[in-house]
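Project standup — Tuesday

K.O.: blocked on the structure for the chain from last sprint. Re-posting the sequence here as requested.
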Amino acid sequence: MLKRMVTKSGFYGTLTLFIAFSAMPFYIMLITMFKRNHDLLNPDNNPFIFNEPPTLQHLNLLLHQTQFPVFLLNTLLVGLAVVCITVLLSLPAAYSLARLAGNWGGIVGVGIFLTYLVPPTLLFIPLSRIIADLGLQNSLWALVLVYPTFTVPFCTWLLMSFFKSIPRDIEEQALIDGCSRLGAFFRIILPLSVPGIITVIVFAFTLVVNEYIYALAFIQESGSKTIGIGLTTELIRGDVFYWGALMGGALLASIPVAVIYTLFLDKIISGLNLGSGRQ
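H.V.: unblocked you, prediction finished:
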């Protein structure tokens, strides 16, 4: 009995520490958003509590003196467009490499994934020339065109493992029953791959939201900026950092992503487990 209590206490104690550690960045962002500048910049003040009465001046700066809602909308539009393109390209590519390419499909899949590992700092200069030649500078279409270059390879590689985890017998049975290869793909493979597809959608959207280099290189107009560059370029002016507004913007922008992960957590975990089974 005593051993059981000690084990449970250790488990819940460790879990509590992990939860506190994970929630600390959100707490810091929340409390910083409402702190006065003097409270923030005074090194003698405790950074984890309100040493002075809270204020709404940082929230007012964020919502009324920057185009923060526009940044969020631009990020959402780009994210949805890139996710649609990524899924439409990754699904047939991954299925072909997993089912139809034979033994060299895995090698090609690894080669595709390696293109995802190329640092954006090596590519944004030639891509900037392409974007300029196409006349897409300062346009969200530039990001919609460029972002699939790293989301498609990653998601194709990820989906390959999902398709490989589905037994071939199920698909062959559908072919025997009269389905075409395309019909078996839509009627059998896609429904079984829903957890993997949701995982790919969430990861692709997260990659878009977190991307910084390309957005900084291609977008200069405030009305076309996404959340990543919008906050840093509009709220860092010279050597002045508007920490309260920066933390408030980061918190408000991270809440939708956290909600998405929470809503689809079971699907994401099952999708990752499904994909890891045949790695």
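K.O.: great, moving the ticket to review. The first strand starts at residue 236 and ends at 237. The mean pLDDT is 84.
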